[in-house]
Amino acid sequence: MVPALAATALLVSGAGPSHAAAAWDPEPAPMTSPLTSQTNQVPVDHPLPEYPRPQLTRPDWADLNGIWGFAVTSRDAGQPTTFGEQIRVPFVPESALSGVQRKITQNDKLWYKRTFIVPSGWSGRHIQLNFGASDWETTVWVNGRQAGAAHRGGYDAFSYDITPLLNGGTNTIVISVYDPTETGGQAIGKQRVQDVTPHPGKSIVYTASSGIWQTVWLEPTATARITRLDMVPRLEDNTLRVTVRGAGGADGTSVKVTVSSGGKTVGSATGTVGTELSVPVPGAHLWTPEDPFLYDVTAELTGTAADKVGSYTGMRSIAVKDVGGVRRPVLNGTFVFQTGTLDQGYWPDGIYTAPTDEALKYDLQKHKDLGFNMVRKHIKVEPQRWFYWADRLGLLVWQDMPSMDSGKTPDTAARTQWESEYRAIIDQHRSSPSLIQWVDQNEGWGQYDQARIADMVKAYDPSRLVDNMSGVNCCAAKDGGNGDVIDNHNYVGPGNTPTEPVRASVLGEYGGLGYRVPGHEWYPGGGFSYEDQPTTTALNNRLIGLLDGMRENTMPAGGLSASVYTQITDVENEANGLMSYDRQVVKVDQARVRAANQALIAASRSLNATVKLPVGQNVSIRVTTPGYTDRYIRHYDGLGFTEVVNTASADLLKRDATWTVRPGLANKLCYSFESRNYPGEYLRHREFRVRREAPDGSTVSKEDATWCPVQGSGGVRMSAAGFPGQYLRHINAELWLAQSGGAHTWDNPAGFTEDTTWAIEPPWAP
Fold first, then answer.
1. Considering the entire predicted model, what is its pTM?
2. pLDDT tens digit string along 542-569?
3. Per-residue exposure over 529-541, b if at least 16 CB sit within 10 Å of its own CB, e if not
C-alpha cells in the first residue's frame, strides 16, 4: 500500500569530517538475536531507512538517521564547543545500539550535531525537518539559528520549516534534548532512571529512553502544503469522510481527494482544505482482522499550489451496542470477541526503538501467528510504521496514552502538557483503521479528572471507543463512570468484569504466567511473574485453560467482550512473556494457543442468549448425574452437600434444599443463591469448599457467591464468577469448586461434566 519511497542520498552525512563513521562502534547488548542483531541487520549510516510516515507520503525525502556528533552537559549548560562522542540516531543513549549505553538523569542535557547539503533537485521548495519523536524537551538550531520554539513531548511527531535558515551549501544541525523522566511531571509511561545494563529487581518499570528515539528526516514541500488527512469511514452511507489539513497558506485552498483500489478509482470528491469532504466508496470492501483490506488515497491541492500526498484507509466501524441484552463492542456492526496481549514495545538492545522495521513488524505478526486479533499498546506510542503494520496485518489496536508518574498527583502545568500531548497523539494516529480504542489512564497512575478527560477524548475523536481507566478495580484507581467500556485487571484471572447497562465489560489485563528460559534471560535468575510455571507443558495448559474459560463461561455467561493477556514478550526482569525478551524463543505451543484463540473468536460470532434464571423466585437445584438424579443441593452446618429429597423428606431438609435466586452480587448478568432458611447468606466457595455464608462486603466474597450459568446437556453448569473454567461440582456428596484435570481430588476428570451439570427445579419449600 505504501511505495518504497527510497530516501535521497545526502551529499554530506554524519557529524562532519572530524567525526568519521568508521570510528563508531555499538556497545554490547544484554541480549541479541538475528532479529535484533546490532551488526548484521542494523546499518551504521542509515538505520531504519524505511519511509517513516506511511499515511502521508511524498516521493522525495532524505533520511538523517545515522552517526551524529554527541555530547552530554549539565542541565543548564549552553552548547558545547566540542562533540567528543558519537551516537547512532535514532537509538537513545541508554541503549547498546546507540553506541553510548549509559544512564541519563535529570541533571543532564543531551546534544546532537551533524551536517548535510540539500539535494540540488529540491531547489525552489520549502525544506521540512521532521522528527518521529524525541523525549522530552527538544530544541533545534540550523546554522546557528533556532528553528521555531522548543518542542515538549516524548511521543508525538513534530516538524520545522527550516528553509529560511539554510545557507545554500553545507548546513549544520545542532539539537539539545532535556529529559527529566520521573523527576518531571510529563508523560513517561514505564520509563524510569536506572542502570542501563541488567540488574536484579522485581520491577514492572523499565530503563528510560532519553532523547531522539524515532527517525529524523528532511522533506521538500510546496509553500502551501498538506500536513494531515483526517479520515473517518461511514459504513451507513458508504463514504469516506476526509478533512485535509494544511499549512503555509493552504487553508481554504481547493483540494481533490481520490480513493482507489488496484490502480482503479473508486470515488473522488473536491472541496477545500479544512472542511470535510465526502468521498463515495460504493460497495465498500470492509476492513477486518481476517481481511485487512486497504484502499489507496491521494489528496492534491489544485491550481498553483500543486502539493500532492499519498495515503491509505480501511473501511470499518466500531461502536458499542446491545447484543442479546449485553453491551458489547461491535466491529462493522457485529460482535467479535477481542483477544489480545499487552505489548510494552521494549527491546533489549534498542530499549524504546526497535532495531529494524522487520523487528517492529515481528511482534505484530507473532500476535497473528498466535491467533490474537487485538493488541493493547501499553502506555507507549510507537512510530507510525508500527500502526502501518497493524493496519496491513489486521490487528485491532487499543492505544494507551502514556501515563505520568504513578507516585504523584500532577500539577496544573503537568496536566496542561499531558492533555496537549494526548491531543497531538490522537491527531497523529486518528486515521489508522486498526486503532479502535483510546485508553486514557491506567490503574490510577497520575490520575485526575477521569470523567472530563474521557469526554474530551470522545469529543475530539468520536469515531473510536474510549476507556476512561484501565484497571478500575486496581491500585486505588478511580472510575470516571463514563466512556464506552468498564475495564478490570485480574491476575492471574481471567476473572470477570461486572456488566453494566451502558458500557461494555472488558478485561484490560490478566495472565502474567511466567516461565524463565535459561540462556534467554535479561538478568539470569532475576525473572519474575504473577504465577511461575514449572514447565512449558504447565504453561501451555494453564494458558489454554484461561482462554477456554473465557470461551465457555466468562464471555457467554459473564458478558465479557475483550481480554488482554500479559504479555507478548518478557521485558527486562519480567519473565511472563509468550516470547523471550530477545524474541529467540516462543515459549508456548503456537498451534494450541492459536486454536484456542480462534475457538474463542468463533464462539463470539455464534453467541447464544445467556441462560436466564427466575430472579426473586425460590428454586431447588437437582443433580443430573445418572444414578443420583434424586439428590439436591442443601446446606448442613454451613457446608454444601447433596442429599436425596422427596415428598417424604422432613420440612427442615426441604427448606435447606431451597434457594432464592438473586442478581449476582458481583455481576448482575450472573446469579447468587440466597439460603431460604438463612436470609443474607449465600451459596459460595471459599478455599474450594462450597458453603453457605454471608458475604463480608469485600469484592472477593461477592465474587465467590456469584455463579454464571452456561447451558449444558440436560441442565446448566455453574461457573464461578471469579474463576471462569471452575465449576460447582458434587463429589462424594460434597460440593466443591472444581476444575477438570486440576491438582485436587475433587478435580478428577471422571464424570466431571455430569457432576457439574444441574437442573433448576421448583422449590421443595415455597
1. 0.93
2. 999 999 989 988 999 889 999 999 999 9
3. bbebbeeeeebbe
